[in-house]
Amino acid sequence: MLHKCVDNLIIRDILVTIKFIVMYELGGFMSINNKKIRKASVIAAVTLAMGTMSVNASVADDNSKGKILSDCALTAGVSKDLSNVSGESFKLTAGVTSALSYAYNDVSIMTQSKDVVSAPESSQAGADAASDTTQQDQADENTQQSEAVQTAAQQCGYTNLAMSNISEGNLNIREEATTDSSVVGIMTKHNACEILEDDGEWLKIKSGKVTGYVNASYIATGDEAEAMAQEEMSTVATVKTETLRVRSDKSTDSSIVSLVGDSEKLTVNSVDGQWVEVTVDDETGYVASDFVELSKSLPTAKTITEVKYGDGVSDVRVGLVQYALSFVGNRYVWGGTSLTNGVDCSGFTMQILGKYGVSLPHSSSAQPGCGTIINSSDAQPGDLFFYGSGSSISHVAIYIGDGQIVHASNSRDGIKVSNAYYRTPICVARYF
Q: What superfamily in CATH does domain 315-430 come from?
């Protein structure tokens, strides 16, 4: 009952205020006792204290005279001298169930129910726009949250993720589900795989380029695998062209650090516009972003070939060695350049490396100048060993790893494999 009386008093006193304002606007200003305004303020303050009033707006510079207010609002209970104030639009809110507004020739009272004050019709479009913006913001937030809660398995493309659960050493991947079967690959600590079949004791998996069987007791699945994957996940660049140059700087004019083959995955350090900084063969370089695809990845198993040639050896190096070995037994011909009909030592290296984008002259003494001289202890498959007398180079061979070389030796032996230190090398050069 008290609330109802207060509301009636508010409306009565506000109408007196409206009369004052309207007369002012029409040029018929007449003195009205400012006690009326103060009385409305006191009543509004009492109502606010009783919890029935919502203060939803205020006007700065309350005592300013003659200030033009282009669009403002005043909540009952906030004192303001209204004399000599002109406004294009003015709103006075008296409580959560009543609102009073005027705009020059229009005076209206709106009464709302259920303690909700609606905006005037002229403000509804703005409210709708705000609502649309809020809904869009919420949709964007939901999308971000959805991306944030994606599992490592989902981000890396696994549907039945498992991880090798070993702290050291290697886990063998076998050709068949038995310890008597040959090893086709190895997994190290926290390598990821896709489970293809599960017969209890053995799991058939695919990890990287290796498909085979592992003992299930050394494999983590479910939440345990996911937790491991979250720790191991990184960004990789997958090569989308047959042979991609890795350069020393973000420029096609910079030197070539290495060559990498199609589908090879490189660890990404950073992305800068058209260039991606990557790590390959323990070196840092840059590749053009147009020729790689960025994605999240997990470490995977190594094939026996990768194990043989060492960790960090690129597919290009492995491929080059395998290609060179395919000609073992073929003829040596001085001055020859044919891998099948006859070739000499520098012709052999020229043809083999040429297939992988490295242009070399047909001269063993000139070929070191086309690469980077390295220590023989740092040699990797695909590097060239040079031999001769003193400092004079007369022979060249391709290092294939494990302390061995393949080379076009002489007319008696043809193309063969030898110990890399059957003679003391004068120098070793790198081209990838």
A: endopeptidase domain like (from Nostoc punctiforme) (3.90.1720.10)
Q: How far apart are CA 413 and CA 423, in angstroms?
A: 16
Q: If pLDDT is split at 50, 70 and 90, which confidence band does 6 have? A: very low
Kindly tell me the burial class for residue 323, based on how many C-beta atoms sit within 10 Å of its own C-beta (0-12, 13-18, 19 or more).
middle
Q: What is the pLDDT of residues 207-252, one digit of tens each?
A: 998 999 999 999 999 999 999 999 999 999 999 998 889 999 999 9
Instruction: Name beta bridge partners: 87.
Output: 69
CATH fold of 234-301 reads: SH3 type barrels. (2.30.30)
Q: What are the tens digits of pLDDT across the range 382-404?
A: 999 999 988 899 999 999 988 99
Q: Which CATH superfamily is domain 153-232 in?
A: SH3 Domains (2.30.30.40)
pTM (two decimals): 0.46
List Cα–Cα distances, 280 to 98, 139, 234, 376, in angstroms: 72, 40, 15, 19
Any idea which residues carry the catalytic annotation?
A: 345, 395, 407
